[in-house]
Specification:
The chain is built from 7 helices and 2 strands; from the N terminus they run H-H-H-H-H-H-E-E-H. It is mainly alpha-helical and 165 residues long. Strands 1-2 form a two-stranded antiparallel sheet. It is elongated and about 65 Å long.
Length: 165
């Protein structure tokens, strides 16, 4: 597998994840909480990093830059999904009450305040409305982002296989 084909595969996986998230929202009517929206942004950033890697098809140092972008996007997404899984695992009485909607907060607060408030989590982030094999959607996002991050690092940091003679 070449770096370009690996990056295309990573991009398509991110597109599929986002596609399912929108399917869950608009067809299954599962409203995303603020942490879900942040995870979508992380998966989108991861997809953009893979797409840049596929388009640039960089050699040597450029592949290190792509690997860093993929790794950073994956780490941020894993961190947000991990926080979400943690909030969902808290006992019912210890979760903060539901806060304002993300749209409302973006109108009232600065971006840094919104990020701080969203990452602290609230009641709507603790609700589990979907499971697959016992894991909630943030659990699957955590696994997917960790896998895609590792895959992206492997694809972009490994030495290219020389062409057969």
């Amino acid at each position: 597998m070449t770096a370009r084909s690996g990056n295309i595969l990573g991009f398509l996986a991110c597109a599929a994840l986002l596609g399912y998230a929108y399917y869950a929202q608009y067809v299954m009517h599962l409203e995303p909480c603020p942490l879900c929206i942040f995870q979508r942004i992380g998966v989108f950033a991861l997809g953009v990093a893979f797409l840049l890697g596929a388009i640039a098809n960089a050699k040597s140092k450029g592949r290190y830059v792509i690997a860093c972008l993929v790794g950073l996007a994956a780490l941020v997404t894993v961190g947000i999904a991990g926080k979400h899984v943690y909030i969902q695992s808290l006992p019912a009485g210890s979760v903060p009450s539901c806060g304002a909607s993300l749209d409302f907060m973006m109108k009232i607060f600065s971006v840094s305040e919104v990020i701080k408030k969203v990452l602290s989590g609230s009641g709507e982030c603790a609700q589990i409305t979907w499971r697959l094999l016992g894991l909630s959607m943030p659990g699957w996002v955590l696994i997917a982002a960790a896998f895609l991050g590792a895959f992206g690092l492997w694809v972009n940091l490994r030495r290219p296989v020389p062409a057969p003679r």
